[in-house]
Amino acid sequence: MRLIFFTFVILFLSAPVAYGQWTYPNSSTISTVDKVGIGLNNPSRKLHVQGALIDPHILFELESGSNLGSLMRIRSSKFNDNWDVGISAFTLTATQGFSAIPTLDLNRFVIKNNDQERLSINATGNVGIGIGYPQQKLHVNGNLRVEDRKIFLGSKQSLYADNNARVHITSNNTGITGLRLIDKLGRRHGELYGSSGGKYFGLLDGDGQWSYFAAKDNYTAFRINNSEKFRINKNGQLLIGTTSAPGAYMLAIKGQMIAEGMRIRTHSNWADYVFEADYPLLPLEELEAQIKLQKHLPGIPSAKEVATEGIDLGEMQTKLLEKVEELTLYLIEQNKLIQQQQIQIDALKQQIK
User: What sign results for the dihedral spanned by CA atoms 159, 160, 161, 162?
Assistant: First the structure.
């Protein structure tokens, strides 16, 4: 009897340091000290739940017929009413006068910080970052950074610009920005590339060689296999097969050219002035002397000039026509002289008879 009494006293005195434990018919166990354990005897947290892998450990359920309220909210401090994490089935969305009228809204999961919604997921699966009610599957209000450098687009594969109708691509490098096109096998098909603070811009082919290259305020070049084929200079010169042009010519071609047709509009007077009455047609004797001295027709560039400076097609056509018309005048004069001589010859023949 005395042994039983002492045993009871010991158990009574040790009760403050022991924990209570209740075991339910379904073998669930609730243990308490200053920690609560559900489904285990020794909880390691304020609330420690242990259950089967398949069934959910915690279930929050609104009372049948309820149409307003949050299932769960977590706040970081007991000294204010601002909450940080919330899961709600229904949300108050409309008011009328002084009475609140609860209306059905999207079920939402919300994470807040400093009383501002930072992450939200609605019932349709839309995820909002920095915005409370996302309008797309991912709706971000702010910058987006992808650390592994991969963004997968769906079958539509569309990018939408902002109100300025521009898609902005910003590089983490102060001197280089690019947009590379790569297929699922890792093969590069081309690249939009810019460097040196906008000084150089262009397109690279699948081998990483320039196909279009623009040097800001200087020239734009087109290349094949990184070999330049033609360029446009800042003054509008078009250069084909060369990177420079003599003088101020607007078109320079290194190599031959073929065309099915060409029209040149000259700004100088056409050669019809040769047929004016006051045109100074050189006597043939004087023309012969100049040819012997200069080794070319008057007004026509020499072979040396053509080799060094080339010719102006429009001007040369005028010069050549000028010489043809002068030749025509010489032929007319010679024809008149021949006719006069023939008359004299015919008169002499009559006298002889």
Answer: negative
Distance (Å, rounded) from C-alpha 30 to C-alpha 51? Answer: 12
- Predicted TM-score (pTM) of the model is 0.48
Return the pLDDT at 102.
38
Residue 192 to residue 45: CA distance in whole angstroms = 55
336 and 296: one domain? Answer: yes
The CA distance from 32 to 42, in Å, is: 9
10 plus 66 within the same structural domain: no
Q: Does residue 314 sit in helix, strand or coil?
A: helix
Is a pLDDT exceeding 60 seen at residue 96? Answer: no
Residue span of the structural domain in which 119 resides? 60-142
Least confident of 8-22, 33-47, 82-96, 136-150: 8-22
Q: List the structure tokens of 154.
A: 């769906």
Q: Say if 92 falls within a structural domain.
A: yes
Three-class DSSP category at 282: coil
Instruction: Name residues whose C-beta falls within 8 Å of residue 137's C-beta, 6 or more positions apart in sequence.
Output: 125, 126, 127
**CA distances, 192 to each of 47, 180, 214, 266 (Å):** 56, 6, 12, 42
Q: Which residue has the tokens 């010169």?
A: 237
| Count: domains in the chain | 3
Out of 12, 41, 58, pick the residue that ends a domain. 58
In angstroms, rounded to a whole number, what is the distance separating the alpha carbons of residues 326 and 320? 10
Last residue of a domain, one of 40, 58, 76: 58
What was the pLDDT predicted at 172? 74
